[in-house]
Amino acid sequence: MARSISEIKNDITTAFMADETVKERYGFADGTTFDSYFSIVSIENILFYIIATAIYAVEQISYAHVDAIKKTIASERGHTCSWYQRMVLNFLQSEQAFFDADTNTWSTGTLSDTEIENAQIVKACAVTEGNFTINNTDYFGLLIKVATSNNGKFSVLSTSQYNALSTYIGKFKDAGVPVMIINQLGDVLQFNITLWIDYSIIYNSSTAKTIHDAIRDYLANLPFNGELTMAGLTGAIMAVNGVELAQITQARAYTYQSGYSAERYSTIIGKVLPTSGYFDILFDATDVDSSIGQGNSMVTNFTYYDSEGNPLSL
Length: 314
Hints:
By secondary structure, this protein is an alpha+beta fold.
C-alpha cells in the first residue's frame, strides 16, 4: 500500500533526527522531535516536504503500474470467468471476420475499426459459476449473461445473433463444462415510494419527471450485472433538491421468461442482482408493453406529502 506524503516525510525526519552527525551539527538532544525543533517555514521542513512529495508521486506511479500488470495477468489467464467474459465480448458477427479455435484469436481482414466495433454485437457480459437447469437436468457450470445495445440502452440479442454467439462459445469453451447463456429482457423493477418534499422547492409540473430521472440515472450508472441496493436507490432519490425524506414501502423484481407475468416476481429485501444482467422500470401506463406480458401492476407508484405531512396531488 502506497504511503501518504505525511508518512513519507515522517520516515525521513525520524531518520534525520536520529543521525548522530546531524545531532552534533545542530546541537539538539536525544529524543528531540523534528516538529519541535524546526519551524514549519524552515528550509529543512520545506526541503523534506518537497522530497516526500516527489517520493509519493513515484510510489503512486509504481503502485498504479503494478495494479495494471495484475489486472492484465488476471484477464489474460485462460479459462477463468474473466477470460470467458473477455472472449464473449470479443465475438464478431461479420462474414469478413474469422475465428481461429486453435489460437483463440480473430482475423479481421480488411475490416475498419468502425466495422469491427459494429461487429462486436455483445456490448455487455458477466460470467459467474453456479447451478442451473436445462431441459429438467441440473448442472453446475458457467452462467453467461449477455446484452447488446439499442439507443444507449441494454437489449437482447436477436435470434440469429444469439445462435451465432452460442456456436462461437462452443468453439473455445472447455470440454465438459456446462454453459448457460442468459439473453433476456431486463428485470422490471416495481416500487411503491412515499416522498416528503419541500413544497417551495420542488412542487411543480416537473416534480414527477425529476424523481423519475433520478431513479433512471441511478439504474443507468449500475454496472452490467451490478447489485441494486435499497439504500443506494433511496440515497439517489433524496439527493434531489427538495426531497426531504424517501421511503420505499414495496420493492419487487419481475423477470422475463418467455414473457413477463404479474404473478412471477421476487420481493426485494435490501438488495438484488438482475437475473438478466440489467434492470428496467415502468413509470406510467405508456411504458407498459402488454405484448410481452407487462401490466399496470408493474408500474412504480409514488405518494407525495409536504413537510407537515399533508398529502399532495401531482
